[in-house]
Amino acid sequence: MTTMETNQPLAVYAIINGEKVESEQQFPRENPANPNEIVCYAPVTTREQAAQAIDAAYEAFKTWKWTSVDDRITRMRRAIAKLKEATPELARLLSLEHGKPLYDSEGEFAISIMWMEFACDNVKEATQEEYKEHEKGKTIITHDPIGVVSAISPWNYPISLSTIKIAPALLAGNTLVLKPSPFAPLAVTKVVEIIAHEFPPGVINIVHGEADVGVELTSNPKVAKIAFTGGTNTAKHIMKAASETIKKMTLELGGNDAAIILPGFDVNNKKDMRRIVISNFLTAGQICMIAKRMYVHRSIYDDFVKKYVEAANQWIRVGGPFNPNTTVGPVNNKNQKEYVQKLVDDARNKGAEVIKLGEIIDPELFEQGYFLQPTLVLGCDYRDPIVVEEQFGPTVPLLVYDDIEQVIELHNESIYGLTSSVWGPEEEAIKVARRIEAGTTMINTAAVQGLDVRFPFGGVKQSGVGREYGIDGIISYTETHVINLPIELDLPYIPE
Which residues, including other chains, have CB under 8 Å from residue 31's CB and lie 6 or more apart? Predict the structure, then answer.
């Protein structure tokens, strides 16, 4: 079975103030493994409808912010229970519209639910009121909800990168309007519908559409915070739109995450080598925290290339998302496929060696879908586009270095700093990690293999502002309010 059987395209809709809302215009979402098949039609929400969703959230906030944290947790746990029950079907819808293999979609739901449960378990501690008595009097510190949150999520991990915003926002007492990507609108709408059923109307809303909807979500004065995951260039426009009303922001942006392979790395360790391959090609390389460029010390370079190709050929099986043998599916959309192919062709034309990896197990499907065979690119210059740009697809350049100072400089000169990884003896790897400019550095692992929702995640430099996950990811949806009760109301240095 290579595709999911559907009788007709499925319905997608906006949810505003608890009601399903359709639009006059719709846009199709094709199956990336078979672009001739339309998976769903999503509404083109108008800017006016987006404003209505914000108005609904604004009104709902007036009462929702006063609900007890216990009530919010109870509602969220009911939603989580229903999401768990619906995961098998929802994961299939996600694979159908996104292209990622079914195991990958199921994994995304598992991570999402893990985070939502963590947020439920820890929101009380994160937002607990502090009461302090001291020589100057008394101080009460509260963590209050902010207001209406505009959440904008991308197509590559639409469920986890939506729930990463939804759970802490609602649990902290905010209301929310979500806009998912038009390249993955179906499964996330079903998820929001399930969650919305457990909350009062207007607390959580979802809209779809074009750039004008995004402008409304980021400029409307009733929006108090923006939570965005996506490209750095888009974030620059969001920051400009939000500047008029000085909105709070959490931005998780692009990265050009490097893997640094130290001379002490054991190339014969099959488990670690497989881990590196997965860190390059999971979700067809379409993960913000994937290892997008590799630097290998010259002393082990030849052996590393040989063992890497062996490991890649063992793990990579390119096919349709519902083929149980598939490990790498198609790229999500035509534009992304063309962009990645252009980077590979540019490197080849400049003299780089392009090595095709893995096995194509669905040849007929491969020819008609947005598939790219994974590639390892050797002999690039350090400044080639495939090295300095974020490929976001199934290709990775491998470069040689001679000393650690050289590779640290190459890493840190990037405008990005989301994640990174260092591979080798633990003590030496940690020393290198401490000198790397990144929000997260993983040792002997990378990508979602090293993700832990208990700890903060985010980028430095142009890879983002703020943190998600962990206690920090809950606190970021609150305002700190300090209430002072001084004993002495008169200060000695102020004249009578």
Answer: 3, 37, 38, 39, 96, 97, 99, 369
User: Cβ of 21: how many Cβ atoms within 10 Å?
Assistant: 18
Separation between Cα atoms, residue 342 and residue 86, nearest integer Å: 39
The residue type at 114: M
pLDDT digits over 273-290, tens only?
999 999 999 999 999 999
The angle formed by the CA atoms of residues 149, 177 and 256, to the nearest 5 degrees, is: 70
Catalytic residue list contains 252: yes
348-373 average pLDDT score: 97
Residues 6+ apart with CB under 8 A from 329: 32, 33, 95, 99, 100, 101, 104, 284, 318, 319, 320, 321, 371
Cα 333 from Cα 489, distance rounded (Å)? 65
For position 4, what pLDDT does the model report? 44
Beta partners for residue 250, in sequence order: 227
Domains in the chain, please, with CATH?
10-253+459-482 (3.40.605.10), 258-450 (3.40.309.10)
Q: Is 492 exposed, middle or buried (0-12, 13-18, 19+ CB in 10 A)?
A: exposed
- Measured distance CA(262)–CA(422) in Å, rounded: 7
Q: Which two tokens stand for residue 26?
A: 């719709």
Beta carbons of 53 and 150 less than 8 angstroms apart: no
- Helix-then-strand count for the chain, H and E: 15, 23
The C-alpha torsion from 460 through 183 and 60 to 476, rounded to 10°, is -10
Q: Is 393 helix (H, G, I), strand (E, B) or coil?
A: coil
Stated length of the chain = 496
Which among 387, 381, 375, 346 has a CA at the least distance from the CA of 259? 387
Distance CA 29, CA 9 (A): 9
Task: Tell me the β-bridge partners of 216.
Answer: none
Q: Which of 108, 216, 252, 468 is catalytic?
A: 252
Is the model's pLDDT at 197 over the cut of 80? yes
Q: How confident is the model at residue 3 (pLDDT cuts 50, 70, 90)?
A: very low
